[in-house]
Amino acid sequence: MSPAKALRPKPIVRIEGMAKSEAAEDMLAVEEPLEIRVAGHGVAVVMRTPGHDRELVAGFLVTEGIVRRRDEVLDMVRCGADPASRHPLDSTGAPPGGARPAGAGGEGSENVVDVLLAPGCAVDFARLTRHVFTSSSCGICSRTSIDAVRGAFPPIAAPLSPRRGVLAALPERLRAAQAAFAATGGLHASALFDASGTLEVVREDVGRHNALDKVVGHAFFAEKLPLAGRILLVSGRVSFEIMQKALAAGIPCVAAISAPTSAAVEFAQESGQALVGFLRPATGSTSSRQAGSRLRQGFGGQAGPGAMRMNVYAGTLAE
Question: Please, what are the domains in the chain?
Answer without folding.
Answer: 32-150 (3.10.20.10), 164-314 (3.40.140.10)
